[in-house]
Amino acid sequence: MNYNNDIVILAIESSCDDTSCAIIKNGVIQSNIIFNQKEHQAFGGVIPEIASRHHENKILYIIEEALQKANVSLQQLSAVAVTKGPGLTGSLIVGISVAKSLSLALQIPLIDVNHMQAHIMAHFIKDGTTLNHPPFPFLCLTVSGGHTQIVKVNSHFDFTLVAQTQDDAVGECFDKIAKILGLEYPGGSLIDKAAKNGNHVKYKFPTPKLPNNNYSFSGIKTAFLYFIQKEVAINPNFISENLNDICASIQHHIIFYLLKNLEAVSNQLNIKQIAISGGVAANSGLRYSLNQRGLKNNWTVYIPKSEYCTDNAAMIAVVAHFKFLNKKFSNLSLTPLARFSVENG
Ligand code: KG4
Ligand code: ZN
Predict the structure, then answer these.
(1) What is the distance in A from the centroid of ligand 1 to the CA of 78?
(2) pTM of the predicted model, to two decimals?
(3) What is d(CA 198, CA 141) in angstroms, rounded to the nearest whole number?
(4) How far is the CA of 238 from the centre of ligand 2 (A)?
């Protein structure tokens, strides 16, 4: 137990295929160690059983590394925080079990964190070099491998889900498109890279229209598959000869769709503080287009550093810091929630 006035929290994130631990001291990130499991590449997607086994093998080493980098001992910890969900149950159990053990052994509070709130709260990470955080209320478009949603953020603890995908997440759509093109998993960043050298208006794709600014990505993915099958039947080298243009065109299409609905919500709610979060927020095309659309709409745009977009424990730590200040603690009956709305937590 930490007997001086410092608030030092160890945060653990193990919801999918990244094992990550961070130390936050008085609201400032001291370390953020991320271990990315490469074993899933061979399967073209995350295999839950493999993910949980690797979390189990790695997590104690990652905690040790996070403590060492922050120059903090276990005895100095004020609390331990962990992702409760949403995510893969087996993966979440590993982080939660370790966090509970530490809480019990060190007699320090346990704090549970909603992963979707944490992606948004990445905007509040302080690490000595971070930018201004958005004022409340603001809109956040969270785009990850498992989720696509527009959230109205009312306060540190109050989130309203305004729109979301009705089927695939946008990151999943990027990864499936990459797979169709023969790129490695997860392919979102590879599409991003190829798109930089391509013509984004060369190929056209359909835009789904759903009520209430909700999204759908399964139709885009299927249309893309049929387009590739048709072109490859005519020219077997179609993909390799046009990879950059294909990536630029589909990426442009997806970004246009994401921002079109975000703009509609912004107009409806009259909120001009606009943020993005989640793994796909690392996409350079989305970051550029958001800034451009922001200029057109008079938005103030907030974009986290790329390292805080993809899964990381720093974002868990920042939520934990606010929860600690408000004495929002969990207890040893904590269990994982595979499905967990951004509005709860
Ligand atoms: O937030 P995240 O790390 O994990 C989840 O909570 O899902 O997001 C992972 C997703 C993957 O689908 C990955 O392909 C995508 O984010 N991603 C990208 C980029 N970097 C990661 N998608 C497009 N462009 C990128 N640069
Ligand atoms: Zn995530």
Answers:
(1) 32
(2) 0.96
(3) 26
(4) 34
